[in-house]
Amino acid sequence: MTRHLLDIDDLSAEELGAVLAAAADPAPRRVLDGRGVACLFEKPSARTRNATEMAVVTLGGHPVTMRGDEVGFDVRESVEDVARTLACYHAVVCARVLDHQTLVRMAAALDGIGATGAGGHPGGVPVVNLLSDRAHPCQALADVLTMRQEFGDLGGRTVAFVGDANNVWRSLAIACALLGMRSRLAAPDGYGPSAEDLARIEATGGHAEIGSDPMAAVAGADVVYTDVWTSMGQEEERSQRLAHFAGFTVDDRMMEAAGDDAVFMHCLPAHRGEEVTGPVLEGARSRIWRQAANRQYAVQGLLAWLLTEVSGSPGGAA
Predict the structure, then answer these.
(1) Confidence band (pLDDT; 50, 70, 90) for 316?
(2) Together in a domain, 143 and 253
(3) Average pLDDT over residues 286-301
(4) What is the C-alpha separation between 293 and 305, in angstroms, rounded?
(5) How many Cβ atoms from other residues are within 10 Å of residue 318's Cβ?
(6) What span, in angstroms and rounded, lies between the C-alpha atoms of 217 and 210?
(7) Are residues 119 and 227 in the same domain?
(8) Each residue's pLDDT tens digit, 1-23
(9) Rounded to whole angstroms, what are the CA distances from 152 to 25, 28, 141, 156?
(10) Helix-helix angle 167-178:137-151, to 10 degrees
(11) Are 24 and 188 in contact (CB under 8 A)?
């Protein structure tokens, strides 16, 4: 069975550690030498596209980026036929999609498919989730990589997420559970996690504390994390969300309530004055630009792990 990464819990705790170790490698092997990687974007991006393309280039590969309208999921061709076509040319298929089920269908179509073309390899063609409505695993990888650089061993550290239980929170909370971290979520009523979300976290042996008081969530935390209140595709809800999230802006007062060495993190883009104030975003505790840089290294580590540890690729030149 081909290994895919559709969300963080597709990795075990040991495998997550291996991916993070590969992401920290200052001289990664060129495991993509002479190979292509399909980078498909139904939703536009800045960090994701740049990080993924540069990760592929660093590993010796050639990224081919396509917009959603260029392939026409279930309009020009079925999702399955698009996936199988891309597998004829590429070693990995990476996709940023509107609906998580698109990734599930792509992965199912490529299970067991090996070297179907010049880009293929014996271990099959993995599908990597660059973002979906349900999950953002590559962001979570970059986040915990940033935390490791800041704190070293993450066991027992606390991450406080102030915002709704969105795709970023979901993947990050699972990553925290796998690494033995405590996670807290402060969300307005009606914006918290589902029972399924909590069950997935608990299935890893972890636990997420859920509440609606941001100050209680950040008290003594090592990391204070937030995301935009209105994500792409939710524009019609903007005025309603602004009203519901009143009092949830991460400001100096919240950061002072966190631990003395606490840092601030945000996946970006940010709306200054809404989910976070400008002084916090630009302040000495902010690690947002290290996070952004680590998006590339997280993808490098993931692809290196998928193509060596799992797929058995001999790699390219050192």
Answers:
(1) very low
(2) yes
(3) 98
(4) 19
(5) 7
(6) 8
(7) no
(8) 789 999 999 999 999 999 999 99
(9) 15, 21, 15, 11
(10) 50
(11) no
- In single-letter form, the type of residue at position 287 comes to R
Does the residue 315 lie in any domain?
no
Distance CA 118, CA 105 (A): 23
Question: What is the rounded distance in angstroms from the CA atom of residue 64 to the CA atom of residue 62?
Answer: 7
In a domain, 1, yes or no: no
pLDDT in tens, 228-269: 998 766 667 788 999 999 999 999 999 999 989 999 999 999
* Size of the chain in residues: 318
Instruction: Say if residue 232 is in the same domain as residue 122.
Output: no
Nearest to 205 by CA among 222, 235, 229, 180: 180
Instruction: Check if the beta carbon of residue 286 is closer than 8 Å to that of residue 309.
Output: no
Cα separation, 313 vs 307, in Å, equals 6
User: Is the pTM here over 0.85, yes or no?
Assistant: yes
Provide the greatest CA pair distance for the chain.
57
Among 174, 264, 159, 149, which residue's Cα sits nearest to residue 220?
159
C-alpha 88/C-alpha 90 separation (Å) is 6
Q: Which domain covers residue 264, as residue numbers? A: 137-292
Q: In sequence order, what are the beta bridge partners of 128? A: 5, 94
> For 109-135, what is each residue's pLDDT tens digit?
998 765 444 444 455 899 999 999 999
* Count of structural domains, the chain: 2
On whether the CB atoms of residues 306 and 126 are closer than 8 A, the answer is yes
Q: Which residue has the tokens 């007062």?
A: 253
The stretches of the chain forming alpha helices (DSSP H) are: 13-23, 47-58, 68-71, 79-87, 100-110, 137-151, 167-178, 195-203, 214-218, 238-244, 252-257, 278-282, 288-305
Does residue 111 fall inside a structural domain? yes
Question: Cα separation of 269 and 17, whole Å?
Answer: 27
- For residues 181 and 204, the answer to whether their CB atoms sit within 8 Å is no
Domain of 190: which CATH number? 3.40.50.1370
Let me know if residue 2 belongs to a domain.
Answer: no
